[in-house]
Amino acid sequence: MKANRLKWFLLFLFVHAVFQLPAQQGEADRKLLADIRAKAEAGDAKAQNELGEVFALGKQNVPAAHLEAANWFRQSAELYFAQAQYNLGVCYHDGQAVAKDYAEAVKWFYKA
After folding, report:
1. Quick check: helix, strand or coil at residue 98?
2. Tens digits of per-residue pLDDT, 22-56?
3. What CATH class is the domain 2-111?
């Protein structure tokens, strides 16, 4: 009888732990995103590029938002962050949130 209760109790704990993981991960993602956003808004070019990648690729449980991504890439690129200059060039090449413009893409690729 005790062994049966123990099995059910352990099963309950296991199921409870499994269903708690996504909520905990979501909280960790929100904290990480808030930290990145705070640095980006403070003018950190690397954080601005990283936030652009979050929005471009839909990372950290954030839906893709190409216009916001392009805006963050532009802010970072104007601070001479090479990866952001490349990413902004990709936006112009692919026409993501900006008009497709190969000359503008080449300009940003060259700067990168």
Report:
1. coil
2. 445 578 778 988 999 999 999 999 999 999 999 99
3. mainly alpha
CA 18 to chain centroid: 25
Give 60's DSSP letter: T
The 3-state DSSP composition of the chain as helix, strand, coil percent (nearest 5) reads 80, 0, 20
Task: List the end-to-end C-alpha distance of the chain, in Å, as a whole number.
Answer: 70
Cα within 13 Å of Cα(51), Cβ side: 27
Residues contacting residue 102 through CB under 8 Å, at least 6 positions apart:
92, 93
pTM: 0.74
Please return the burial class of 36, using the count of CB atoms within 10 Å of its CB with bins 0-12, 13-18 and 19+.
buried
Report DSSP state, residue 81: -
Cβ neighbours of 97 (radius 10 Å): 17
Select from 39, 99, 35, 103 the least CA-distant residue to 67.
Answer: 99
Q: What amino acid is encoded at 89 in this protein?
A: G
